[in-house]
Amino acid sequence: MHLCRDINISQMNSNWSRGVRASLYTLMSLIILATLVGNMIVIISISHFKQLHTPTNWLLHSMATVDFLLGCLVMPYSMVRTVEHCWYFGEVFCKVHTSTDIMLSSASIFHLSFISIDRYYAVCDPLRYKAKINTLTVFVMILIGWSVPAVFAFGMIFLELNLKGVEELYHKQVDCLGGCSAFFSKVPGVLAFMTSFYIPASVMLFVYYRIYFIAKGQARSINGTNLQIGLEEKHRMPQNKETKAAKTLGIMMGVFLICWCPFFFCMVLDPFLGYPIPPTLNDALTWLGYLNSAFNPMVYAFFYPWFRRALKMIIFGKIFQKDSSRSKLFL
What we know:
- By secondary structure, this protein is mainly α.
- The protein has a single domain (26-222, 240-326), classed as Rhopdopsin 7-helix transmembrane proteins.
- The chain contains 11 helices and no strands.
- α4 (91-124) packs antiparallel against α9 (232-269) and α9 runs antiparallel to α10.
- The chain is globular, with a radius of gyration of 22 Å.
- The relative contact order is 0.14.
């Protein structure tokens, strides 16, 4: 088992020249490197600088940890599987890898859901924001964001609930050919789609829809007040700060949906269509999803001044100076 001696596998490998394989390894290695470096900078920045120790940033810290682990524990093995069309690491590790992949991918969208709730209270109910989104609340969010995907993913794969009703088909089309992929029958596939993607994504879309219209109404009200009392700058700055943060996190959500929508929709439709999606396309959609973990730090760098200032201090080694943790990254 998992020896990749099947004729079809050998023919599939021969279709890709050594140059194509080298190019794919290079491209995927760059994606992995960007994921690791970008998210590590986020983790170091929020951990080191005391000014960044806020509820929202701890959620960002936790999500960056999810993305970092995805780049560290999952992507390298997926890279070999994608390029070689074969799984060389054994049956047990295949289950561990698949479970970890599902867990971390699901944990990302769970965190984004909680971040959207955080932004909702910051923009729409600022007077009660600190009371509602406190350290305990954030701790519970992070705990749920890690534990629920972990229990779901490892329980589903190790108990083989995902293969219920299609065990023979899986062993014939995937396992015996030396493959390793997240294979689902109809009901488990729908359950995974709803739990890992549809429900949390729907929550995010609804929350940001509410944020957009409430923030728009607040902006009109504030602008009208500013024209009357002549205190435009005083009122505009805090509102702009929260609105900009909500916009940034909204872009993060949009990037996530663009990256992961194709994979999840193909995953849930595949068993109902008789599994017509080839492994190569499935791997390509998986790597499109992985790109989200590399894009998130780029969103921070583009929209958050504190991230750019922290990045400069890390690159030039200023974080090793005395009291650097108390540096002011923003006013």
